[in-house]
């Protein structure tokens, strides 16, 4: 989960619609799978400016090829920027909950607010991302006039970040979201330690975002490339990894959550979810032995996270830029 309190961890990894919410949000029934430096102080919603660039054969605006090359160069070797990109994408999208009354454009979901809202990025839970945010904002300012939106850039960068890690899966990557500088509701992100890090709370939090036990087990697997930089108060030294191969996208995280080797540091939330008597823990145990299944489940869940709060009717009109992530 990219989640978690002030740990500069890579996400995430991490993750129904209320009667007054937009219909057909990207969600999946919990039981459908067995065991299964500056922002904008004002609150505005904006459409992406029309790009003057031509499009690729997939309909992806050509500017995104330039963006992809730029980000891939910056994220080489699954570095700190890449890992922050993954976490940042999770934190922006995970502001959505089916319990929040609908508001445009995505009810706090994948809307770029974490990049554009000076209020949201100042929250304590976002502290580890406060150096990455101005870096990405610079990229937004560089490409915005060519049709690149904040919400799209956040998720696009996250998917490039995943792929920059050796073995990282390809996540379906769409562009066309609307942006907003309205801060997402508070209390929507998972906690690594203390109150809110228990199993039931975490399960309900992700259920409210439309994610099943399998989805949650897969999303938390992004901790395979996670290192914590702000959890000293919880006994984790700066840079403490969540598995012994933090630049390799693999299933070592799941295995070492159980074997607990020296030099690897676990969040209490992960330990709680990894209890193999639970639905999530059973799936985590399965992924430990089946990397192909993990990659497929993660790519599916992350692809839906990229669209949290956006109806299928709207996203069906988005351009597919997945080929640029490969």
UniProtKB/TrEMBL annotation:
Residues 57-326 form the Plant heme peroxidase family profile domain. One of its GO terms (biological process) is response to reactive oxygen species. Heme b binds at residue 223. Keywords: Calcium, Disulfide bond, Glycoprotein, Heme, Iron, Metal-binding, Oxidoreductase, Peroxidase, Signal. Its cofactor is heme b; Ca(2+). Its EC number is 1.11.1.-. Ca(2+) 1 binds at residues 92, 109, 111, 113. It comes from the Eukaryota. Disulfide bonds join 78-165. Gene3D superfamilies: 1.10.520.10, Peroxidase, domain 2 (1.10.420.10). Residues 1-21 form the signal peptide. InterPro entries: Ccp1-like (IPR044831), Haem_peroxidase (IPR002016), Haem_peroxidase_sf (IPR010255), Ligninase (IPR001621), Peroxidases_heam-ligand_BS (IPR019793). The active site is at 91 (proton acceptor). This is Peroxidase. It comes from Baudoinia panamericana (strain UAMH 10762).
